[in-house]
Specification:
The protein is of the alpha+beta class. It is built from 5 helices and 5 strands.
């Protein structure tokens, strides 16, 4: 590894030490459906967001709920403190499209219709309120 690459990798590693996040990769739901769930909890207090996700009837909400619990656990692991009610907030959540499975479906007159089975990646960041304001 070259010197410049090593230096930038070390800077990236130091920056990640102060960020508390969780990633969910290759989720077999469309990004559009996942963004509806992500928009519900963006900027919300973490434990309130867990309650919203628990009682949401969207299929993607169960996966985002598990991801949020993982992000809270990562915060507790890195800081060495227990998360109190009203302390943690969902600072940002992003949904990006992942690989697409392309399939063919029989259509009339010998044609074939393309079926695109989409998937997505979700990244969720949590932090305390005073860290957000700084």
């Amino acid at each position: 590894m070259g010197a410049r690459k090593r230096i930038s990798a070390e800077k990236r590693k130091e920056a990640q030490a102060t960020e508390y996040f969780a990633k969910l990769k290759s989720v077999p739901t469309s990004p559009r459906k996942m963004r509806l769930v992500a928009d519900m909890i963006r900027g919300m207090e973490a434990f309130k967001a867990l309650g919203v996700l628990k009682f949401s009837n969207k299929e993607a909400s169960a996966r985002v709920e598990k991801l949020l619990k993982s992000a809270i656990s990562n915060w507790e692991q890195k800081t060495g403190r227990q998360a109190a009610n009203g302390e943690l907030y969902v600072t940002s959540i992003s949904v990006d499209s992942a690989t697409m499975l392309k399939r063919m479906r029989p259509a009339p007159q010998g044609r074939g219709y393309r079926v695109r089975k989409r998937s997505n990646h979700v990244t969720l960041f949590v932090d305390t309120k005073n860290e957000i304001q700084n």
